[in-house]
Amino acid sequence: MSIVTPGFHGRGRPAADLPPGQYLTEDFPVLSAGPTPRVPTGSWTFTVTTETGREYRWTWAELLALPAETVTVDLHCVTKWSKLRTTWRGVPLDTLLADVETAADFAVAESYGGYTTNLPLADLLDGQAWIAYSYEGEDLTAEHGGPARLLVPHLYLWKSAKWVSGIRLSHDDEPGFWETLGYHEYGDPWREQRYQGD
């Protein structure tokens, strides 16, 4: 995970309804740390692991059988681009965590390929996060995190882990990949929490 591929050029136009320091883009830039994992849906699983080590697991077919939502959200990348009114379909984390017994306060999203990012568990609940498998009515491509990615649109996009394989719950806040390299622990775009100390 030592290569960062920006996949876009230039800047769009600023807009008044964007978080501070952001500019509007019409395309969907691709940024990745390392190679793009190609995960067949036949072997894909999503696992929630509690702080006690108990596991709750779903196959691809089981995920698709759960109640899903279509949501239209704005995306804000820490590299300063924003894309407005993007439409996704996926399973709310509220659904996946409904029967999970936990006293944890924090979560670490884990991905195929080894990427991780940390979040307060509260930011995955109450209609704020999804395991998304469709973008703009099409299957989510590998470049954008398919077959499924975490979608947490109220935070900077690095918190919406691509190629998600699971959520590990914890009593302690454990920094993920970018957080250990100096990115902000939380990542609120409206407060410009890009880097540690912001």
Automatic annotation (TrEMBL):
<dbReference type="InterPro" id="IPR036374">
    <property type="entry name" value="OxRdtase_Mopterin-bd_sf"/>
</dbReference>
<dbReference type="Pfam" id="PF00174">
    <property type="entry name" value="Oxidored_molyb"/>
</dbReference>
<protein>
    <submittedName>
        <fullName>Molybdopterin-binding protein</fullName>
    </submittedName>
</protein>
<feature type="domain" description="Oxidoreductase molybdopterin-binding">
    <location>
        <begin position="34"/>
        <end position="178"/>
    </location>
</feature>
<dbReference type="InterPro" id="IPR000572">
    <property type="entry name" value="OxRdtase_Mopterin-bd_dom"/>
</dbReference>
